[in-house]
Amino acid sequence: MSLNRTPARDHRWLVLAVVAIAQLMVVLDGTIVNIALPSAQRELAFSNDSRQWIVTAYALAFGSLLLLGGRLSDIWGRKNSFIIGLIGFAAASVLGGVADSFGLLVTARALQGAFGALLAPAALGIMTTTFTDPKERGKAFGIYGAVAGGGSAVGLLLGGVLTEYASWRWCLFVNVVFAVVAVAGALVFLRKPAALAVKPRIDVPGVVSVTAGLVAIVYGFSNAATQGWTDFWTLAPLIAGAVLVAVFVAVQRRSPHPLLPLRVLLDRDRGGSYIVLALTSIGMFGVFLFLTYYLQLTLGYTALQTGLAFLPMTAVLILTSTLIGGRVLPRVGPRILVAIGGVLGAAGMALLTRIDVDSGYAGVVLPALIVMGLGIGLIFSSAMNTATFGVQPQDAGVASATVNTMQQIGGSIGTALLSTLSADAVSSYLADHGVGTAAQAEAVLAGYHLAFWVSVGIFGLVAVVGGTLLRRHSDRIRLGSDAGATVGDQPVVVHAG
Q1: CA 150 from chain center: how many Å?
Q2: How many CB atoms lie within 10 A of CB 191?
Q3: Burial (0-12, 13-18, 19+ Cβ within 10 Å), 45
Q4: Does residue 198 carry a pLDDT above 80?
Q5: What pLDDT sits at residue 195?
């Protein structure tokens, strides 16, 4: 089967720029609001117990609706879904920015998550169907992986700048700027997609079971981060969520129009990449969560200084994704790059275990961030490319949604797991050494160190999964330009919708 190439006038690289802007908006929103939370709490006067809902509302809506959003993008078309998601996300951001009560702010965050769940799969689906030439695809997904991996650090920096020099409300209003630019670019550069031979349909039992299951799972992990693993509202949702996901799998096996066709998951390279992305998202919280705490609470950094501190990692991540992952992946396949990335990630986390109450940034933190940037850049550029390559056109949206779902679930697990383990380590240290000022400082460090060591193990698992499940040379990734290419059993027709 022949490959119908996209002519130069299709502006593939401008399409990439538009998608990258939208993806950056969604990714950085996970951390930019965290920086703004203390200011928002003071102004709107909500309690510490309520504060978590500003984060949880977004995570619940985003994580639980991603698969539905991916299937809707297959049905409505990725261009339409992309634009609707952008406009809805921007409108929800404005609602949050003008919120004069806790309830309105939580509602706005939930709406952001819902529209993000439509936008994110559409964006990745556009990437999947726009870049099919192996060399171009490697470069494009290297850039996309850099945005996905570095967006959280950008959110810390941007959140620090806006909170310090403007207002916490601008951490929400700024999304309008991203959305306006992306919508304008989408209207100009994205083409209407070719009609699919097989029109996907909504699998209602699948939607209900997986949405309810993911809501329960994300809520359970969110509750565990604050209330512990033995709390009823942790255990009950996690058990219910596991049962509902099992029901979902059973439904998918029998449904004539499954929401998530099992062939998407059972492909060795794709399934392995999903696991890698989930594990990486768990481990990354060891950097973004606890290193942020360390810089601000132990070393006394401001929000802006904290954001600047993460810039070297972001820069290295971008360079690694684009210059190494993008160029080398088509030649060697994903196995080697993901395995090396996992080893580097583990090494970077191990370096962070050296932090002390008076550690210097340049001698301790900076080397760890550089090594982490190298590792995460290799992992994201390789795994995201592999996870979406070779999927059938009618499944491109839901396959892309699964990438985002794995990252969201991984992030929820990472927050809960590392937070509770760290808290237990702090309590154990204080029980053994008393509660004096010096002991409290050392106890906090003990909690950080344990979280970092757990993240070392998680990145070690990334290396193992990458080195065993992924193929050494994926034929589909390495297709030569003269060999032709297919997506599933269909010829590839390149378009940007």
Answers
A1: 10
A2: 15
A3: exposed
A4: no
A5: 59
Which has more confidence, 133 or 406?
A: 406
Helix (H) or strand (E) run with residue 154 in it: helix 134-165
Structure tokens at 203: 């699998």
Annotated domain spans of the chain:
8-202+259-491, 203-258
Of 171, 153, 241, 220, the residue nearest 415 (C-alpha): 220
* pLDDT greater than 80 at residue 193: no
Measured at the CA of 293, the angle between CA 292 and CA 296, to 5 degrees, comes to 85
Total residue length of the chain:
497
Q: What is the DSSP letter of 354?
A: T
- Residue identified by tokens 């973004």 is 288
pLDDT in tens, 100-145: 999 999 999 999 999 999 999 999 889 888 887 877 888 888 888 8
Angstrom distance (rounded) from CA 480 to CA 487? 15
Q: Which CATH number is 8-202+259-491's, of 1.20.1250.20, 1.10.10.10, 3.30.200.20, 1.10.150.240?
A: 1.20.1250.20
Total-model pTM:
0.84
Backbone angles phi, psi at 385, to 5 degrees: -60, -50
